[in-house]
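We include the pair:
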Amino acid sequence: MVFTPKAAEASTPGAASPLMPERCVDHKNKNIRKEKWRELRQKKNKEKREARKKRQKVREELGEDAPPVLQPHTIETLRIPDVTTVQQDDLETQEADRLDEFGGYFSREAEPRVMLTAGDFPSPKTRDFLKELALVIPNAEVRLRNFSSIKKTARLASARGFTDLLIINEDKSRKVVANGLLHVHLPDGPSAHYRLSNVKLSAELRRIKEFTHHRPEVVLNNFTTMLGHRVGRMLASLFHFDPEFKGRRVMTLHNQRDYIFFRHHRYEFKDSKKVALRELGPRFTLKLRSLQKGTFDSKCGEYEWIRKRHEMEDSRRKFHL
């Protein structure tokens, strides 16, 4: 490599780069540099707004002959392709769905019944969270653990005719907050363990008086891989397969970057063309930690999938659901 004066000038500490204009680095004062960067960002944002208005004006003039809307580049659009992506018309996947543990639910043979519980001596907020989940999920009942283990609780729930068991875990070491959700599909599994976060109750959203007892519509978004397809079917089996559209309630389970966002809304029809969504709550976020065959067994259970952070999360554009 030949060392030239230009190369020496470019390698000089403090020299301006293409990403950093010279006027922003000439000043040794940190506050002045921040102000320069703020002005530069405002200028770029203004140029983007003007370009967006110009493209919108061109589309309005051209009408149906207008060019398509540009797709922004995000982590989702730049996602690394997954070989296990499920196609809608895949006959092999449809046959596997018919024979899996949730085939009876989707063929409307067994009506779902859900048992809700938590650890011993749950906090007041966790008790309120369980009560709201019982209002949101049809045929759900809140029961006390009575110091019984998870295996014993699952056996008792199955013997009493429940099809699913939900157990809320709390972190009592630092703060008494709900931080985990265990979902056991009865009687033969599978069992899914989620990290639970960002819990907001309906009382915090000031929507608690707007609940109705109509069975909700369930919407699953962006569960594209084989693992995501299986998790989506498992979550859908919690709700009744016959929604009552008269109640205008909708449960949305939206997967984005392996985070599952739970939202509870109600449709509000303003006229024949416009419709709005009014959030009723509760809201929370789930992230899958493990999926286990059969009912939950922490010692001898066989895992279908388990999250290994340092091995799996080697790229920001790689997702599993």
